[in-house]
């Protein structure tokens, strides 16, 4: 049975999400922070034998999907086809492939990424993180200008307003290296922090400052912070050069991550 989930389903949802905590970072983070009744978030699930076996979460104009079997996939595809107010659905590559292979879903565009995890205190070489600072909501305009200067962020759904809201709600933790003229030279952020994990996003360096190790220092600073919290950091990437940085800092590829665009 595929239906909208409510707070009364929470224990069953947690039982499902806890099986793969890293791959479920976005799902767990959004549910822990915003619950089941927020106007911008809806949580759906497939139930079989009293257990949740798949979760589809709408967060504003995008979806996150996870399943452990083909059951309920056709129901998910029907929902995606009926609701035209979304731009992207994403999830682990196995779950997403079922939307195509079982549900017959045909996205307009597909992006594939490597998905990597770093458990707390994973071995890594020393990185000097002096001069890496934590951003506040007052830094949002600078961060927005930095991201606008990066070609890879051109298709992002993030706006300056949504970035500010993410800071104000406490969902974003951002660190940065300042540039010579007071601008942000590089930054890295964490979102969707939850009981077990958090997701590294927005790793970027202004073109003028590339090759100086600033992005490495930012991610290393996040590693230090989440080592202290005892939580696994996760991220996904499709840039081989970035992959080299992440492996050096203790991240290991464990799966694939896929985004479909309508």
TrEMBL record:
Keyword list, A-Z: Acyltransferase, Transferase
Segments forming domain N-acetyltransferase: 130-262
Example of a GO MF term: acyltransferase activity
Name of this chain's protein: GNAT family N-acetyltransferase
PROSITE patterns: GNAT
EC number(s) on file: 2.3.1.-
């Amino acid at each position: 049975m595929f239906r909208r989930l409510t707070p009364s389903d929470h224990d069953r949802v947690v039982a499902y999400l806890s099986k793969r905590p890293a791959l479920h970072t976005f799902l767990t983070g959004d549910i822990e922070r915003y619950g089941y009744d927020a106007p911008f978030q809806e949580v759906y699930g497939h139930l079989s034998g009293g257990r949740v076996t798949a979760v589809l979460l709408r967060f504003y104009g995008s979806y996150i999907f996870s399943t452990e079997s083909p059951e309920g996939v056709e129901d998910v595809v029907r929902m995606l086809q009926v609701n035209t107010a979304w731009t992207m659905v994403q999830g682990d590559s196995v779950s997403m492939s079922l939307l195509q292979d079982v549900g017959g879903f045909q996205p307009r565009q597909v992006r594939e990424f490597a998905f990597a995890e770093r458990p707390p205190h994973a071995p890594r070489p020393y990185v000097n993180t002096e001069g890496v600072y934590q951003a506040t909501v007052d830094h949002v305009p600078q961060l927005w200008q930095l991201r606008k200067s990066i070609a890879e962020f051109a298709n992002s759904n993030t706006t300056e307003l949504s970035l500010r809201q993410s800071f104000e709600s406490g969902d974003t933790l951002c660190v940065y290296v300042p540039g010579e003229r007071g601008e942000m030279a590089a930054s890295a952020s964490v979102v969707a922090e939850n009981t077990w994990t958090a997701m590294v996003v927005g790793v970027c360096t202004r073109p003028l400052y590339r090759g100086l190790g600033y992005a490495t220092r930012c991610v290393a600073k996040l590693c230090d912070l989440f080592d202290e919290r005892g939580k696994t950091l996760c991220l996904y990437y499709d840039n081989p050069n970035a992959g080299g940085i992440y492996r050096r800092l203790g991240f290991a590829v464990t799966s694939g991550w896929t985004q479909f665009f309508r």
